[in-house]
Amino acid sequence: MAQLIPITTPTRVFEDRTQTIYAAADVPNSQMMVTSSEDRMVRLWDVETGEVLKQMKGHTGDVMGLAVSRNGQMIATGDENGELIAWLANTGEPLTNAVKAHGSAVRSLDFSPDDAFVVTASSARNDQTVKFWNTKTWEQSKYYACGSTVHCVRYARSGVPMLAIATDQDIQVYIGEALQTKFKSHSHATLSLAWSPDRTRLLSGGDDLDPTIREWDTSSWTQVGDPWTGHTYKVNSISVHFSGTYAVSASNDNTVRLWQLSDKQTIAIFQHAASVVCAAFSADGTHILSGGYDKRVAVWAAPKGTLAVAVAAVVDASKELVSTVNFCLSKSSLSHLVFFFNQQGRKLCRTVSRVYFNTTSAKGNVPLNHKFAISSCVFRIKNLLSRNQHCR
């Protein structure tokens, strides 16, 4: 049984004193956070000072969904009237006018792994579609008819596009353009989804009739183990830490739960004063953001040591023993790099050929120049050093 981490208070709280917070997300490679709320407003915050940098106006209804592009340059938001707006993340200025995307509320959006498309989903019973929008032209490129009310859309973060769609009836998974599978996931509606970083697992959250989280093996699309229990009302949101070691979930039971993926146990419970609509890890993995009907975004410290990676590096023209590794944690242009040093302190290289995330399942490869800040590294000597002690 996992031991609960005694976290009782957030490290920071952002107040939106009069309005429900529907969504919150960290903006990668910046000191900013973006939120959407029921006052038709999208807000860009400085996470260090708590200052609202920009109130982004343009929606005609409650702003119920938002997504930030993988490169941190764009924000997409959707409202209760079915409108979609794209924004520049660094300034909060609109990239588009309001686009009529659906006939009713857009509750879920996501960017494709290459940021070429935004996919939107409407919760309207007379819609039942997901639509794809070209991020160059912001015109619709295609749509999928899902046959049931759609609650959530989520792309796996890298590789060949894998899109999961959660509906009242099932989960549908597309790989590229092809429908890979559809399967019954919960006893009633599936409301939330999250992929593991290595794409080998998909997590799903159920509604009030089945407020569990279920884990799915993406090689067979079968359930892994028993449902994760703890929430007493619907699971509105799930997010997986980029190390693959933890997940967070938000619920109408006024709590955010932090789960340890190795044993599927709750290790921390974060309390809100009302239903929690959204919860997500910050881009650098050091904090958890959560928001909801208590009209605030709370920032909680993520457990230390959440990243464990093994690195196989290429050092051109060098046959020296690697003695130390330095990680760049800043959100500057040099972030997401690993620096290797020899025993005399001379820098050997600053990039790696491959990173293996230590997850609960198969290890997945991550390309050069990581998409997230790197905080620690674990070496396996037999993989790192050859007999004459140079990096492979």
UniProtKB/TrEMBL annotation:
Q: Which sections of the protein are WD repeats?
A: 14-55, 56-97, 99-143, 228-269, 269-300
InterPro entries the UniProt entry points to:
WD40/YVTN_repeat-like_dom_sf, WD40_PAC1, WD40_repeat_CS, WD40_repeat_dom_sf, WD40_rpt
Q: Which PROSITE patterns match?
A: WD_REPEATS_1 (PS00678), WD_REPEATS_2 (PS50082), WD_REPEATS_REGION (PS50294)
Family matches, as Gene3D superfamilies: YVTN repeat-like/Quinoprotein amine dehydrogenase
One Pfam family of this protein, by short name? WD40
Q: Which keywords fit this entry according to its UniProt record?
A: Repeat, WD repeat
- Name assigned to this protein: WD40 repeat-like protein
Species of origin reads Suillus luteus UH-Slu-Lm8-n1
Its lineage reads: Eukaryota, Fungi, Dikarya, Basidiomycota, Agaricomycotina
